[in-house]
């Protein structure tokens, strides 16, 4: 097998460079001399995640499609900590990305099965306040394109960024209680009646009809006593300017050059 580098990362103080190779090895190099210092053995599949600790120059995190997550001491070539992402009944989950927290006390990973894995020191009680399964009800909604080739939500015919905040649902599409809906940015101060989604019956790919969130009970910002969104106004103004510019270009193109004065140019 021809060796290929799949990922590369410098440590915190740039003294070392770590490369991941497609033979499942990690190699630690001296960044000044180019000398190979260590071969780090442990992964059983290709590694596409190398994450540097934010302030400890000895520590490097690696994760890969084999479900393994390693914390390495790259100065000694050892692995102080190891976690295998085993999912009951489904084998292991490939780890796609990892990031350290700014204080270096925690790191979070995402895997191929839609899980967010949070590791760190201390008590996990704050994380018990949220449900195990959290999805937005719009996560898998189909999109379409309009005549300008802009993306729209198929059901509401709205641009996705202009839609009201989505609802939190479980993996089967069932909405969570209102106390969890307030976790969604934009719904923190909504009245309870505005946190109850509209439910309807939707056919799954297996032909089974299930009750799911199909729409949102929303009110205007004026009715909620909220200030209009400055960002939304800017987006609408930019869209209006773009539409006016497009209309002017089409008008000038259709009129064509007159009296041999050459091709009309945009102002």
Topology, pairings included?
Layout: E1 5-10, E2 16-21, E3 26-30, E4 36-40, E5 47-52, E6 59-64, E7 68-73, E8 78-84, E9 86-87, E10 91-92, E11 95-100, E12 106-111, E13 116-120, E14 135-136, E15 143-145, E16 151-153, E17 168-169, H1 178-181, E18 198-203, E19 209-215, H2 221-224, H3 230-255
Antiparallel strand pairs: 1-2, 2-3, 3-4, 5-6, 6-7, 7-8, 9-10, 11-12, 12-13, 14-17, 15-16, 18-19
* Low-pLDDT regions: 217-228, 259-267
Q: Which sequence of strands runs across the widest sheet?
A: 1-2-3-4
The 3D shape can be described as extended
What is the level-2 CATH architecture name of the largest domain?
Answer: 7 Propeller
Helix content: 10-25%
Secondary-structure-derived class? mainly beta
Task: From the alpha carbons, calculate the radius of gyration and give it in angstroms.
Answer: 26 Å
Number of domains: 2
Assembly status: single chain
Which descriptors would you attach to this protein?
267 residues; mainly beta; Methylamine Dehydrogenase, Chain H; 2 domains; four-stranded antiparallel β-sheet; 3 helices; 19 strands; extended; disordered C terminus; repeat; WD40_rpt; Bromo_WD_repeat; WD40_repeat_dom_sf
Brief digest:
This protein has 267 residues and is mainly beta. 13% of the residues lie in helices and 34% in strands. The termini are far apart.
Structural commentary:
With 267 residues, this protein is mainly β. It has two domains: 5-127, 7 Propeller (Methylamine Dehydrogenase, Chain H); 143-213, no CATH class. The protein is built from three helices and 19 strands. The protein has helices at residues 178-181, 221-224, 230-255, and strands at residues 5-10, 16-21, 26-30, 36-40, 47-52, 59-64, 68-73, 78-84, 86-87, 91-92, 95-100, 106-111, 116-120, 135-136, 143-145, 151-153, 168-169, 198-203, 209-215. The strands form seven sheets. Strands 1-2-3-4 form a four-stranded antiparallel β-sheet, with no helix packed on it. The chain is extended.
